């Protein structure tokens, strides 16, 4: 960003690439979006609520209260049931410098504009249908399993915070440290499951509160 804060970072996690968009903050910057080369991506509102969630099968657009505004399926996805809903182009601004354009599964662009210069990141992916003609089924978890996952991520983040405090006793140093990439992606994975799983609104709010604390 013009402030000098990191805006977009691309990291490798095992066999896939992950593009992360961060807030314009000098320390403890929140994550506004995560795009994975496996086809799973999430964009969030400033308050941390899921804005757009995309999987191998399609995606959905949510309002700030968590209600679904629209959903779509990708042309090459194999849906077990339900009608196919085509994608209407989506353009959103994560902040004044970063925007996201979604035109198709392989046509997703993160655009960064500041001080008269622009950078574009193609974060779309084309998932090939297997020989059997089916994509991996979506993950469905029970309420207890989802709550345990959220608590596990929270505990891992607390341990990471503790290591930072021990290694860097000065508050000025560890306050500027960001969570490792694997914790960021695990947090967004739980938020994705929270959005797609058939759970109560009360539990959904509890899970989000746990991982965003």
**Number of discrete domains:** 2
H/E series: EEEEEEEEEEEHHHH
Proportion in helices:
25-40%
Low-confidence stretches: 129-140
Intertermini distance: 25 Å
Number of strands: 11
Record the strand order, biggest sheet.
Answer: 1-2-3-4-5-6-7
Pfam family, one: FAM194
InterPro entries: FAM194_C
Organism: Psophia crepitans
Protein name: ERIP6 protein
Which secondary structure elements does this structure contain, and how are they paired or packed?
Elements: E1 8-13, E2 16-22, E3 31-36, E4 41-44, E5 50-54, E6 58-62, E7 68-73, E8 90-93, E9 98-104, E10 107-114, E11 117-122, H1 143-167, H2 171-174, H3 181-196, H4 201-212
Antiparallel strand pairs: 1-2, 2-3, 3-4, 4-5, 5-6, 6-7, 8-9, 9-10, 10-11
Can you tell me about this structure?
This is ERIP6 protein. It holds the Pfam family FAM194. It comes from Psophia crepitans. This protein has a 7-stranded antiparallel β-sheet with strand order 1-2-3-4-5-6-7, covered by helices on one side. A 4-stranded antiparallel β-sheet has the order 8-9-10-11, with no helix packed on it. A hairpin with a 2-residue loop joins strand 9 and strand 10. The two termini are 25 Å apart. It is built from 4 helices and 11 strands, in the order βββββββββββαααα. The chain has 213 residues and is an alpha+beta fold. The longest helix is centred in the C-terminal third of the chain and has 25 residues. About 6% of the residues have low confidence. It has 2 domains: 115 residues, no CATH class; 70 residues. Helices cover 27% and strands 30% of the residues.
């Amino acid at each position: 960003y013009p402030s000098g804060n990191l805006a977009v970072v691309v990291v490798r996690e095992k066999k896939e690439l992950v593009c992360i968009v961060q807030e314009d903050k000098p320390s403890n910057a929140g994550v506004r979006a995560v795009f994975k080369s496996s086809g799973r991506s999430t964009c969030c509102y400033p308050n941390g609520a899921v804005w757009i969630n995309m999987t191998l099968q399609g995606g959905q657009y949510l309002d700030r209260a968590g209600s679904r505004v629209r959903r779509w399926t990708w042309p090459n996805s194999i849906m077990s049931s339900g009608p196919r809903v085509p994608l209407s182009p989506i353009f959103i601004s994560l902040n004044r410098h970063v925007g996201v354009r979604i035109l198709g599964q392989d046509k997703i662009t993160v655009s960064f504009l500041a001080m008269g210069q622009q950078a574009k990141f193609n974060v779309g992916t084309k998932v090939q249908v297997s020989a059997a003609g089916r994509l991996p089924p979506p993950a469905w978890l029970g309420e207890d399993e989802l709550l345990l996952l959220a608590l596990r991520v929270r505990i891992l983040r607390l341990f990471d915070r503790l290591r930072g405090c021990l290694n860097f006793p000065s508050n000025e140093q560890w306050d500027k440290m960001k969570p490792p990439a694997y914790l960021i992606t695990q947090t967004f994975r739980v938020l994705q499951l929270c959005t797609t799983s058939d759970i109560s609104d009360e539990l959904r709010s509890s899970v989000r509160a746990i991982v965003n604390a």
